[in-house]
Amino acid sequence: MAYANKLKDDLDDALREAGLRVTRQRAAIVKVLTEAEDHPDAHEVHRRASEIDNTVSLATVYRTLAVLSDKGIVHRHAFEGAPARFETADAPHHDHIIDVDTGAVVEFASAEIERLQREIARQHGFEVVSHRLELYCRRRKDKR
Amino acid sequence: MAYANKLKDDLDDALREAGLRVTRQRAAIVKVLTEAEDHPDAHEVHRRASEIDNTVSLATVYRTLAVLSDKGIVHRHAFEGAPARFETADAPHHDHIIDVDTGAVVEFASAEIERLQREIARQHGFEVVSHRLELYCRRRKDKR
DNA sequence: AACGCTAATGCGAACCAGTCGCAACAGTCA
DNA sequence: TGACTGTTGCGACTGGTTCGCATTAGCGTT
After folding, report:
1. Average pLDDT rounded to a whole number, residues B103-127
2. Where are the domains positioned within chain B?
3. Measured between alpha carbons, how far is A132 from A96 in angstroms, rounded to an integer?
4. The domain A95-137: what is its CATH number?
5. B4 vs chain A: nearest CA distance in angstroms?
6. Which of B69, B76, B97 to mutate to test the interface with A (most CBs of A within 10 A)?
């Protein structure tokens, strides 16, 4: 997923466009994120980025994830009882199903639920700024 | 909310029924929770419980909240970027609207959203174990 | 190609919510 | 009242994440 089709030059541009310096470390981190098929946490990003550039420190991973998150380039998800996990923000909006047994994450989207959320907020005199919808699930035994 | 109508004796029973000893500290903590109209975090529960019994330590608050949570007597909610907040579990199931400006929490329920969640999970081969739905909102200016 | 401004980095210390080990303590039931 | 054992307070500790600071290094300029 996520910027996976973009080339490295484009990624650098994405950073620059956000008014950020393109450092070796950031390039490595962004590369890791764009190539990730899963939702890695900070330590995992650090581990993977270290393979590309072993000067990347964990602190920089956190700082970079924070800045990318601010810029809306990546999304941070703090699922129940686990360190935050990250994904690039290029995919259309979606929420998550978390497999409670494996920790695997599946994405889904429901325009209908989104609509109901806005409606409920409105009924209470609010407007939705953001939301969090996570389904903690287990694979169905009876597949039928 | 929450057990607010029960008397202290009933609360003690609730603890005993769960196979737990009724200690002064637990009684104080449970009292705080049953009388809370809001969703206090552990430190706030500790502060309030200390007024009833100043021997209550923060560790015991955490331990008691954990055990009550295990027993399903209270619910723990870890909202975005804030320490976990607690509420008694006597009210019917509901999700939360969090006012991003004030931190205030409003409860709501939507059978329709619940239904859609189960449907989505099923479509992906899962069944919902639990879910988290939080609407981070702002009061509407244009009350129109 | 070296220059300079200042953002970004690595390191380790600090932070914070929450947990744990342990000896002292106190419910509960006989 | 006694004894068994669950609970407690304390302070140490953890794990994820952030911060302070001196050093390094982008990148627009000369």
Report:
1. 97
2. 2-88, 95-137
3. 9
4. 3.30.1490.190
5. 24
6. B97
The minimal CB distance from A139 to the residues B125, B135, B140 is found for B125
Query: Using CB atoms, which residue from A116, A127, A140 is nearest to B137?
Result: A127
Contact A120 B110 (CB under 8 A): yes
pTM: 0.88
CATH 1.10.10.10 fits B2-88, yes or no: yes
A111: phi > 0 → left, psi -120 to 50 → alpha, else beta; which? alpha
In angstroms, how far is C25 C1' from B73 CA? 26
Q: If you write DSSP's letter for every residue of B4-67 in order, what string do you get?
A: TTS-HHHHHHHHHHTT----HHHHHHHHHHHH-SS--BHHHHHHHHHHH-TT--HHHHHHHHHH
pLDDT digits (tens, 9 = 90+) for A41-85: 999 999 999 999 999 999 999 999 999 999 889 999 999 999 999
Tell me whether B115 touches chain A (CB under 8 Å): no
